[in-house]
Amino acid sequence: MTAVIDAWMQHPTLPFLRHDMFASLRRWTGAEEPSAEVPLEATIAAMDAGGVRHGLISAWYGPEGPLITNDEVAAFVARHPDRFTGVASVDLRQPVAAVRELRRAVQELGLRALRIVPWLWGLPPNDRRYYPLFAECVELGIPFCTQVGHTGPLRTSETGRPIPYLDDVALEFPELTVVAGHIGYPWHNEMIALATKYPNVYIDTSAYTARRYPAEVVEYLRRHGRRKVLFGTNYPMITAEQALADVKGLGLDEETSELFLAGNARRVFGLEGLEGLQGPEEASGPA
C-alpha cells in the first residue's frame, strides 16, 4: 500500500485558527471559533485516519506577523520527524531579513521548502519582493510553494492567477522548483499549461476533495501529467479522510496512483531517504 504524503498541511496554532481571515470558512463549514490549542497528536490522528504517512507542514507569515512560526514548525518536526517535514515562511515586507530568515530556517532548523500565500500579502508572485527569495531557494536547493486559484477567505483572488504571474516567475527562474497548491480553479487550465510548459512547475491538489477535482485536472493526472501532480489536503480545512474518500473514482492505474499520492512528493521535496516513504523500487533495493 502506498505511504501517502500530504504536500500541503499545517498544524494549526490558536492564532492561526482564530484569525479573522478564516471567518468565512468557518461560516461555510459550520465550525466554531476554537478556544484551546490543538494538540499535535490530534493532527497525527487525523493523518492516520486518512492513511497519510507523512506531511509537509508549513509556517504561516502575513503582514500582521506570524501565525505559525518557523521555530514552531521545527519543534513539531523534532517531536515526530518520521511524520513531518517542515516548510518555512517569511515576512515579504523586509526582503533582506526575509532571505536571512529563510537561510536560518533551512540551514539551522532543517526546514525543506518555502511557502508564501500571495493573497495574504495582496502581492502576486512576480512582485519584486519575492525575487531575492527565489534566488535563495535555488541556492538552497529547495522548492517554492504557493497558492493558485480563487481565494476562499474574503480577500482578492487576483493574486492567484497562474498567467501572467507564475508564468513570469517560471520564465525568469528556470532553476526554481515551484509547487502550486489548490489546483488553480477557476484558472486550472492555465495551471495545467504552466506545469506542461515548465519542467520544474508542479500542481498540488490541496483544498479539494477528490470528487471536486476539475475534469481537466483528472485527465492531465491520468495522462501526460502523471509526474506533475501531488496530493495535498490543506489540513485542518480538509482532513485526509475527506480528501481521499473518492480517490478510487479518479480511475488511476497503480503507477499513476503511487506517483500522485507519494512518489512525486518524494522526488520534488527530496524525501527519498526517509524511512517508510520509499517507493516500490527504492524499498526493494537495486536489482
From TrEMBL:
Organism: Streptomyces monticola
Pfam hit, one: Amidohydro_2
Protein name: Amidohydrolase family protein
Keyword Lyase applies: yes
Limits of the Amidohydrolase-related domain: 69-271
Keyword terms of this UniProt record: Lyase
Domain of life: Bacteria
